[in-house]
Amino acid sequence: MYARGVRVLLVCALLLAITGRAHADEGEAWDGSTIAEQAGAGFGVGVGVGAIGSFAGLLAGAGFAENGDWGTPLIGALVGFGVGFLVGDVAGVQLVGDKNGGDGSLLATTAGLVGGIAVAAIYVAITERAGRRPPITVDLLVALTCILGGPITGYQLTF
């Protein structure tokens, strides 16, 4: 039942996308090239800032670790990467949007990230409740789409 419902939603979304008449010229809100650039910058800057955060978390974890304890620095590195990726995602989306003539607010971009994380959490809750977990690659793609798409949506809604 769950899989059938998802397929129906996907087909409906595809039909709307194909038959829709929505159009945005270069530089307007929801311009496809700007959104693609924002997604690339959000991911790229997120990975870069995440790497810096990972290193900082590793050092912080090593400062708290006992002799021979490798778990604390590892957790510090993972948390540092996660926080750094989220901060870099918002920064990349904001910078590219502003570079392309947008005027979205940083608060809305950050709120979009929070909304994207909430949508990803709802997705996890629904799939857990259904008792049928999709492959991990599907989970990762949904999470990445929500985490990258949330800030872009927030930015574009304040354009």
Set out the fold topology.
Elements lengths: L1 H18 L12 H33 L6 H29 L6 H25 L5 H22 L2
Overview of the molecule:
There is one protein chain. The protein has 159 residues and is mainly α. It has one domain. The chain is built from 5 helices and no strands. The model has no long low-confidence stretch (mean pLDDT 87).
Name some characteristics of this structure:
single chain, 159 residues, mainly alpha, flat
What string, H for helix and E for strand, traces the elements in order?
HHHHH
Supply the number of structural domains: 1
Terminus-to-terminus distance:
39 Å
Classification by helices and strands: mainly alpha
Number of strands: 0
Described by strand count, sense and barrel closure, the largest sheet is: none
Strand content: under 5%
Query: What shape does the CA trace take?
Result: flat
Helix content: over 70%
Low-confidence stretches: none
Averaged pLDDT: 87
Radius of gyration: 19 Å
**Number of H- or I-type helical stretches:** 5
Concise account of the structure shown:
This protein is an all-alpha fold. The chain is built from five helices and no strands.
